[in-house]
Amino acid sequence: MRLLLVEDDDHVAAALSAVLSRHGFQVVHARSGEDALRALLPTEKPGGKEPFGVVLLDLGLPDQDGYEVCGKIRKRSAIPVIMVTARSDVRSRIHGLNLGADDYVVKPYDTGELLARIHAVARRGTAGEDTGPTPLAALGIGPVRIELPTRKVSVDGQDVQLTRKEFDLLALLAQRPGVVFRREQIISEVWRTSWEGTGRTLEVHVASLRSKLRLPALIETVRGVGYRLVPPPA
Questions:
Q1: What one-character DSSP code corresponds to residue 232?
Q2: Predicted confidence (pLDDT) per residue in 65-99, tens digit
Q3: Which of 198, 201, 216, 229 satisfies CB 3.0 to 4.6 Å to 173 for a cystine?
Q4: How far apart are CA 202 and CA 194, in angstroms?
């Protein structure tokens, strides 16, 4: 997922970008409100860069108030916005949410909490997108075809029998090929529970999927982070 980090402090931005990158985000850093608004302009080139999934917006910007930037973003886009500020009073939070922010993080914050909030608003944003007149019915990843309504999976036209959780895991990874999903996120979305005590179950399901699909390189382990689906070469 591409993430726009709006932060005027280069040291803070560098440290946070490093953490986010380790968790699978492609971070673009904007140092001012004007830079942020410019980065959000749609590309005119066909097949341009993937749109941003989340904006992480610091309110203390050098050129304009962060609240003002949030209002401008909301007028032109429905992209999820998380405000980051040292102001902890309730009135400031309400003001930001009224301007269209999706969430609010107060400094100093826990990195784990920030990551959880980013994933939460990204999921809400994806769920609310207008994807056209008909919902996505199938995913094709190389020789693998995943039919979402019927929960059928085939490889080179041959049906593969998966358990319910195996299908859910594969479908989750396949919806964003190349994106790293954290172990905690996968456990939350597929098993609807917390990470503690479920890690071994996830590893077993990944191993089973690799075996049943006969494509061991399809699901890549990102050491210390999680997993991602790697489309086979054409």
A1: P
A2: 889 999 899 888 888 899 888 776 677 777 777 77
A3: 229
A4: 12
DSSP state letter for 187:
I
Q: What is the pLDDT of residues 50-71, one digit of tens each?
A: 789 999 999 889 998 889 999 8
**Can you tell me the distance from the alpha carbon of 78 to that of 71, in angstroms, rounded to the nearest whole number?**
11
Burial bucket for residue 232 (CB in 10 Å: 0-12, 13-18, 19+): exposed
Alpha carbon of 46 to those of 49, 54, 142: distances in Å?
9, 22, 23
The answer, yes or no, to whether residue 133 has pLDDT greater than 50, is no
- Cα 143 off chain centre by: 25
What is the residue whose two structure tokens read 């609010």? 104
The answer to whether the bond into 108 is cis (omega within 30° of 0) is yes
Number of neighbouring beta carbons within 10 Å of residue 59: 20
Mean pLDDT of 144-166: 91
CA distance 208 to 84: 41
DSSP string, 15-40: HHHHHHHHTT-EEEEESSHHHHHHHT
Q: Is the pTM of this model over 0.70?
A: no
- DSSP secondary structure letters along 119-173: HHHHHHHHHT----SS---EEEETTEEEETTTTEEEETTEEE---HHHHHHHHHH
Closest CA to 231 of 214, 217, 213, 221: 217
Report d(CA 86, CA 109) in Å as an integer. 10
